[in-house]
Specification:
21% strand; 12 strands; 303 residues; five-stranded mixed sheet; disordered C terminus
């Protein structure tokens, strides 16, 4: 059996849409239809109910889905075993939010090029929801998630680091250099410039400010942390960002830390599909990610 039919079958099961499966697989919708019909004919059973709202697995389709995924996993292991002895090579697609893409992944890629020059890393900036969808669909090989807990069906994740947060303002802001720590009630009267909704630490801060009795904090959200950082550097308000993303601005005097309430660390999780065996290239990328976060800066990279 052509395993491409099984790939189309599992994609349609995930998306419940011939259009969605075609987009995911980069095929014409008519090709998806033909392949599903061919698979149903070969197996002698109907796998999907075609409804106006989409394509839903039949009882037989649900029974066969796990088996199809196991066949595709076995095929992946077969190809991986055939290349175990040669140089590590291939393309690895990594999903991560802007916070990690800008502060950490360039260092990971630079170190990786010295160890495995034939490994090509493609970065896909995305939030947690999109990253999880990408892992399940096979568009991403791994993802870095800024979440306190990662508990999604079919996704395996390990916590690789914690990131310290900083409460920031411009050097000439009234709160800059104040000896007495700022309280939550005082912060709730300030204007904050935060990363977009879905950013775990920005969402946490917004909820904490909005929980202050009688407070109506002014919150402006941006799709770019650089935009938020620039507004704060111009003296327009405050923000909270990971220390790693503002080290240069703090050292250069464009931003300053505000003494205030204790802020929690945010967890960095390395996530992948729970059932798929990663390629050697993907394993090499994952190992370098872990090394980047867990080894002291300046430690030489080793294969």
């Amino acid at each position: 059996m052509d395993t491409r039919l099984l790939q189309t079958f599992t994609a349609l099961a995930r998306t419940e849409s011939f259009t969605g499966a075609a987009a995911e697989l980069q095929l014409a919708q008519s090709t998806v239809t033909v392949q599903i019909r061919a698979l149903e004919k070969a197996l002698g059973t109907r796998l999907f109910d075609r409804l106006p709202t989409g394509a839903l697995l039949t009882e037989a389709g649900r029974r066969l889905l796990t088996l199809a995924e196991e066949v595709l996993e076995a095929e992946s292991r077969l190809f991986a075993a055939a290349t175990e002895g040669g140089p590590v090579s291939g393309t690895v697609v990594v999903g991560a939010g802007e916070t990690l893409c800008s502060a950490h992944l360039p260092g990971v890629i630079t170190a990786l090029r010295g160890l495995h020059p034939e490994v090509e890393v493609h970065l896909e900036p995305c939030g947690t929801t999109t990253a999880v969808e990408g892992l399940r669909a096979g568009r991403l090989d791994c993802a870095l998630l800024l979440e306190e807990q990662v508990d999604f069906p079919g996704i395996a994740a390990e916590r690789v680091a914690g990131q310290s947060l900083a409460l920031l303002c411009a050097p000439d802001h009234p709160l800059a250099g104040r000896a007495r720590p700022v309280t939550w009630h005082e912060l709730a009267r300030e204007h904050f410039f935060l990363h977009e909704q879905g950013c775990s630490y920005s969402d946490w801060l917004a909820e904490r400010l909005q929980a202050v009795a009688g407070a109506r904090p002014r919150l402006t959200r941006f799709g770019s942390i650089e935009a938020a950082r620039s507004c704060v550097a111009a003296g327009l308000g405050l923000t909270v960002l990971p220390q790693a993303n503002v080290a240069g601005s703090l050292d250069g005097g464009r931003l300053t830390a505000v003494r205030g309430p204790a802020l929690p660390d945010i967890s960095v999780h390395l996530a992948r599909h729970g059932r798929r065996r990663p390629s050697r290239a993907a394993r090499a990328v994952a190992a370098q990610v872990v090394r980047h976060f867990r080894e002291p800066a300046g430690t030489p990279a080793t294969a």
